[in-house]
Each structure stands twice: as structure tokens, then as C-alpha cells.
Design goal:
Elements (H helix, E strand, L loop, with lengths): L1 H43 L2
Length: 46
């Protein structure tokens, strides 16, 4: 029973870490795309 609990805890921890990395990557990418869009808009409206 201890082995099953430790595997389950590892799976939960791994899921949280991977989820955090995915959310962080998505936020970073969205900010990067937004800043690129701002630069393009600035060039077009000069």
C-alpha cells in the first residue's frame, strides 16, 4: 500500500509541475506575441 501511495504522490507532483510549466510557457508566449504585435502596429501607424 505504501508503494501505491508514493507512486500516486509522485504522479500528482509531476502533474502539478508540468501544468505549471505549461501555464508559465503559455503566459510567456502570449506576452511575447503581444509585444511583437505592438511593435508591428507602431510601424504601421507611423
Amino acid at each position: 500500500m505504501d508503494a501505491i501511495q508514493s507512486v500516486f504522490k509522485f504522479m500528482v507532483a509531476s502533474t502539478l509541475v508540468v501544468g505549471g510549466v505549461l501555464v508559465g510557457g503559455t503566459v510567456f508566449a502570449a506576452k511575447k506575441v503581444d509585444s511583437i504585435g505592438d511593435k508591428i502596429q507602431e510601424k504601421l501607424h507611423r
